[in-house]
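look at this record:
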Amino acid sequence: MNRLACLFILFVSAMLAGCSVAIIHPPSAATFMEKSDGNFVTDASVSAFFGDLVDDEPHVNYVADGVKEVELSDDWYYKNKEWPVGANFSIQKNKGYFKYGFGFDFLTPYVQAGFASDYFGVMGWSNLWLWQLEKVEHKYFQWGGGVSIIEQLPIGDNFRIGLTQHLSRNGREANTAQHGAMVIGMGRSAPVFYDEIGCGGYISFIPNESLRVGIEFRYGRDLTYKRREYSSYPVEYEKISKMDRFAVTVSIISTSESIVTSSEKHEKMQRERKAAEERQKVRDLESLEEYESRRSNEED
């Protein structure tokens, strides 16, 4: 019954992702490098995106080679609006140096797998929805994913620094708004995919014994789209520039092993404190008895 329930939840989640968006970005490298044999690693992260984000600016559009033309309709129009924030949740597990997991990038389910050691990792990821119910751009191929190379340097038991390089096909949010709609988003969601190459780095540390915090920075060069600014002047006044995006991600990482260890340490500390208090009481009692015996001898 539990397996059927999990499959049903996965199916419904995939359907929701297919009906709404197919956002996908590189997952957290700091989380992927967190090893915990025999236990699950859970991660919740928030990302902020900035740089050349797509927006509906006047006299600006975005061009790409080999991209299918955007569908047109008398009832709605296509909006380029890239979200500046994102959220991610994942569950991962190690089998030796092999690691695999499942997660959500906003509403998009994805899987990831790869190699993770103390100093080096290779992470691959892919979304789970290839066919989009509501198609606007890239009509027949809704795949997003990629691969990342990770180099890590542990400093002591608690602090780590890492470098990353990635090649990916990301999915960003767009929308087909209804003509005359006053609220952005009153239409059909329309994911737009683009190829990206980039690099980054991260630090991670343990603020307490049950959690690890990761802070990551990532740079990416859009290999698919370019930004075109134009005006009412002749075509030679058009300005076409490449697009660079940046991301900052804060991750809260936890393992069942660390939580259990923290609980055991807390119980051990309580036992040791009680034992120390008992020993102190015995010493105080012995000192009192010794004092009374010495007074009694002096009186005699």
